[in-house]
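Figure 2 data, in text form.
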Amino acid sequence: MSLRITEIFYSLQGETRTAGLPTVFVRLTGCPLRCQYCDTAYAFQGGQPMSLPDILAQVANYTPHMEEQVPPRYVTVTGGEPLAQKNCLVLLTALCDAGYEVSLETSGALDVSAVDARVSKIVDIKTPGSDESDKNLYSNIEHITARDHIKFVLCSREDYLWAKDIMVRYNLPARCEILFSPSHEQISATVLADWILQDHLPVRLQIQLHKYLWGNTPGK
């Protein structure tokens, strides 16, 4: 059993409730979507096939240089679209079994019902501004729990109003934490913050911390 891997790297989590925490990222290759703001197009193709034991070994290699070697606590499986590879489900379970706190970053266009219940799912509901909102699989909402996140990447005021409507229609705040993120260089984080405060929305504003630290650099 193998998966096609674009990169495995150690960085700070840039998003979600674990933002700022050291995390190992496993970036799988391939994605069926083409969002206009995508910042990981380099993961659409290529990559290298890796066996599950080799992936787990490389993740475990990211240990602090201390007298007692402590393995990393957080692992994020991302892409591309990781669920486009069927063996992603096996990888997620193996990482959980190894004792990691595991999160999955997924576009929300593919079925999440078989994802290990121990995994924190970050499901990105695509807005009209992404050019891929017709790919949203709304049945995924039934499989969202309190440990998960639903994310909206917003490109405009129209996207913001659309996301508000989706939140109400599906009663999303009752299911999990909701993340509103400004599309980088398309909408001001300050403007989005003002809208959230004006409307008293029960959402978390998030910015992509890694981009503020290192820019749009692979492996960061």
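Caption note: The chain has a mean pLDDT of 92.
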